[in-house]
Design a protein that fits this description.
316 residues, alpha/beta, Spore Coat Polysaccharide Biosynthesis Protein SpsA, Chain A, 2 domains, 11 helices, elongated
Amino acid sequence: MNENLKTVVVIPCYNEEQTIGKVVKDFKKELPEAEIFVMNNRSTDKSAELAESAGARVMWVERKGKGSVVREIFRKIDADIYVMADGDDACPAEAVHELMKPVLDGCADMVIGDRHSGGHYREHNVRPFHSFGNSLVSSLVRLCFKSSHDVMSGYRVFNSYIAHNMPILSNEFEVETEMTIYALDRNFNVIDVPYAFRDRPKGSKPKLKTFRDGVKVLKTIFMIIKDYRPLMFFNFFSLIFFVGGIFFGLPVLREFAASGRATLTSSAVLATGLIIISALSFFCGLILDTIVLHHKKQNEIELLHFMANIRKNSNV
């Protein structure tokens, strides 16, 4: 590990007393020079005490949810390299060197631990609906952003450019999806590195609820596509309204062409309304797409200034 770079390991934690001590010790063994932070998110068990006794620095996050934890990480912890791993011992510490290498080499801004390659995740994950949800979310991201990543993975390594230039709006488990989509949309270098996913030990209960959290992730994707891909979003609805307008309008046009009269008044009014809404939706998408493009340019300029300041300070 480059001694000139400050590396931290950040571990979101909510009632993980069965595993948190082992997770901290494993990362201390692999990264002895890194500072380890356990972000205790309103745990009601002995997670905080066990993490502290294992050598971690415990930070308390009062607002519940993993998104709130990540927001606190970005606001309060300053480092060059961030390693983020779950506290349930599903993210093997021995894989951290492979995940860190592309970031240390300057080849990536964010490395996502890929649970799916090699079948490890499918072998250990016995919840079929959860696997289906992961596949659905990944497919939606692939469709909209032309990129395939394990968007819901909690094992990540990223640099300070990500930590200081990524707004976190989610409060709960959908934060990983938000982080991935934001990084892709802002043209950060994001790559996947496979690792051997481990299941929770017996007696350790998962915090994710398949349907509840699945709905939250899909809602987040829906909102992010609206914000980041407004032309695609509004054109989709524009097409639906246009097809509906044609469907109800064709009988009116056929009747008028055959008899010179239009007796299907209701269909004519409905078809006209749908076509107008279709046009409005298209132009809304066009206008919002222009605004988003402007924001991207402004964000790129701000990122360039941030990187210039980092280089300037490193040379002082």
